[in-house]
Design brief:
By secondary structure, the protein is an alpha+beta fold. Helix content is 33%, strand content 31%. Strand 5 and strand 6 form a beta hairpin. The chain starts with 11 loop residues before the first strand and ends in a 15-residue tail after the last helix.
Length: 209
């Protein structure tokens, strides 16, 4: 059984997308022998337009996923085969990406997304520690998603949307703490939500992914 076979069709999985010079979290869905995902602009989308080679890798380190989503410091080591690049030690797949632009509209307004699909051509070597899922980490993940949307809402002047996202971040922070979450990253997100115009204050990376 290959790695692709471990993913249930139709379910969204949070993974890491590695392009020529960038790493970003994305939600992927397996359909048949391909992985589908969307990119809302950014460096990864730009790189895939000119260099359609990427790796998709798995991690159960939610804190690292959120740090990458917020462009916070994280030490990573890379390997590759010339065309494709991947993070050392993480299991995953690599292949060529097919992509096309499409209009998208939601509460944050209209934008153009890059709809992508990757058909694995090979697997990246690596293993994950056998960590059971943490309920607290689910809330940290949602805080990470909401703070990225909040920053967009503030930039676009969508005050009502921003207010709702701030309230949800605070609610999820309380649940995260109640369930034993102790990462300082949650406090960083809370401060970003209160003052999105100030750069986040974070310590330099201490560990590899």
């Amino acid at each position: 059984m290959g790695l692709l076979d471990t993913l249930q069709e139709g379910k969204v999985y949070e993974v890491l997308l590695i392009t020529r010079s960038n790493v970003t979290p994305v939600g992927v869905v397996r359909r048949g022998n391909r992985l589908f995902f969307k990119l809302f602009g950014g460096r990864s989308a730009g790189e895939l337009k000119s260099c359609p080679y990427a790796s998709i890798q798995f991690t159960n380190d939610v804190e690292s996923i959120v740090k990458l989503a917020l462009n916070l410091p994280l030490r990573l080591e890379f390997d590759g085969n010339g065309e494709h690049r991947w993070i050392k030690g993480l299991p995953g797949v690599y292949g060529t990406v097919e992509a096309k632009e499409e209009e998208h509209e939601d509460e944050l307004g209209k934008t153009v997304v890059l709809k992508c699909s990757l058909q694995p051509a090979g697997e990246t070597p690596g293993t994950l520690p056998p960590l059971p899922p943490s309920r607290a980490d689910f809330y940290l993940m949602e805080m990470g998603v909401d703070i990225t949307r909040l920053l967009v809402a503030v930039r676009k002047g969508l005050d009502d949307v921003a207010k709702g996202l701030r309230e949800r971040i605070l609610t999820n922070y309380r649940m995260y703490s109640r369930l034993g979450g102790k990462s300082k990253l949650a406090e960083v997100i809370l401060k970003m939500a209160a003052d999105p115009y100030s750069p986040p204050q974070v310590a330099p990376p201490e560990e590899d992914l």
